[in-house]
Amino acid sequence: MRLNPEKIADLSPERLDSILRRSMQDVSEIYNSTKTILDDIRQRGDAVNVEHYLKLKGDLKAEHFLVTPQEIEDAYRQVPDEVVKHLKIAAKNIVTFHTAQLDRPQWQMEVMPGIIAGRKNTPLDSAGCYVPGRRAAYPSSVLMTILPAVVAGVKRVVVTTPPDEGLVANPYTLVACDIAGVKEVYKLGGPWAVGALAYGTDTITKVAKIVGPGNKYVTAAKMLVYGQVDIDSPAGPSEALLLADSTGRPEFLALDFLSQVEHDPDAAAVLVTDDPGLAQAVCDEIERLYPTMPRTEIMDQAMRYCAILVAEDMEAALEFTNTYAAEHLEIVTADPFLTLQKVRHAGSIFMGPWAPVPVGDYASGTNHVLPTGQAALSFSGLSVDDFIKKPTYQYLTKEGLASLGTTITTLAEAEGLPIHAMCIRKRLES
Which residues are the active-site ones (predicted)? Predict the structure, then answer.
């Protein structure tokens, strides 16, 4: 495996497009098959999920999907105490950070004499958190999806996670659910889980919002049920961009680069720097480390989405950074706080040589459910705000209404809505 530095100014349009596009998948090709599953769940409910999971458990009934207290107890016996201890530390930091995101619950102002307007915060009644499973355990994703909802004040939080043979949920996932305080956990995955959460079945009550990462079928299902329920941003394979100047340490940056591509065959890592010497040193360090690394069978595939890029100067490096709009952005520059002011698009930002992406993945408190595939151009990472509605309100005195009477009636009639205007005149004439 060999990476070579590439100058951004010399990239062909095709090469630049392939770097920016990374492994973005067009899920439209699976819309029809996914929609068929969702439509079936809407009509037949639990029966569809039972039929699908009979392959894992022959005597399956709908009530078997709900995780029991005994399964939680069994999970604690399988997860090392040291892991439990550190999941609790991570949970504490996540709660602390997300509690700070809470706005004042209600505010109001006098817009004009006699006109009071304001806004109040109302948490969602329910939320469904999708947690990937089977191929790997992600207890950190359990904490990242559940705890912002809990902090926001959501009364009912539900978790779905794909089961293994015998309809068994991953014990690490179950322990993390218990630490986060959620008891309603269902052993369901893919579109079957999304459909059950969106439409409800006899055994699973529908939710108001579905959040959490999944594969392309989960993403397609979430996009198809949007409108029936709310969803977070569409999630794709993980990615990171490392923005560095001459102060960057090649041994750190090489490991940060490789840690990103060990995620998944479709993961992406890009280093952008204005220092050709640093770019070459990182390439050399990656080549030296690579034969000693685990998970190279995954990294070999992911490398097609990776690049080491040299910009003409730091302004050009920042321009590329904002265009790439990475899920994770590391800033390793002489003054990362100054650089931060020039960053417009990123899911989560890691500043300085001592803040690699894994600190946010697990324990610093920020959320790791983030927009991918340039979605950071318009989406933010998961937060307390995702679980709070913010309705506005207004109170007017008669004098306040009179001060706006002509404005309202004029605009209503201009839009061809005369009864709107009558609502105002009738009150002012009374």
Answer: 327 (proton acceptor), 328 (proton acceptor)
